[in-house]
Specification:
alpha/beta; 6-stranded mixed barrel; 2 helices
């Protein structure tokens, strides 16, 4: 059974940038991969779950047989990998600004494709976001009410 609760991410605050694309991401947590009999490859959708026995987050591959010990959330995580991964691989789960969730091996996170943001970059990002939020709020400000008979 799939739990209808989805993962609550809260407000986005970036930690690192993809070097080629410039897209921003934040790291969320580590999880172990449960693949089933076959390794899983790049772009495989994985189910996010909690293993009640080990009390750890897990990502379930399409061939993995779930048990009552797995609390599965209605959240899909997309695997990114250069090589097929096997049962028990440790993965970092991270989110983009669009709230999509991705998983990648920690070694691939440090191979040069991602760059940590500096404190100054994070501060600037928050300043720009605050300005954009204020601009959006101004769009919904109540202006002078329409004159009588105009409605």
């Amino acid at each position: 059974m799939i739990n209808t609760l989805s993962l609550e991410l809260g407000p986005f605050s970036p930690h690192f940038r993809h070097v080629k694309r410039g897209t921003l991401y934040r790291n969320l947590f580590y999880a172990f991969l449960y693949t089933g009999p076959r390794p899983v490859a790049d772009e495989t959708p994985l189910l996010f779950a909690l293993d009640r026995n080990t009390r750890s987050y897990v990502l379930l591959g399409p061939d993995f047989e779930r048990t009552p010990g797995h609390l599965v959330f209605a959240t899909t995580v997309t695997l990114q990998t250069l090589a097929p991964l096997k049962q028990g691989s440790r993965l970092m789960v991270y989110a983009g600004e669009d709230a999509r969730l991705w998983a990648r091996s920690p070694t691939e996170m440090k191979d040069g494709r991602f760059q940590n943001l500096t404190v100054e970059e994070k501060t600037e990002w928050r300043r720009v976001q605050a300005e954009e939020d204020a601009r959006q709020l101004r769009l919904f400000e109540v202006r002078d009410p329409p004159a009588k008979g105009c409605l």
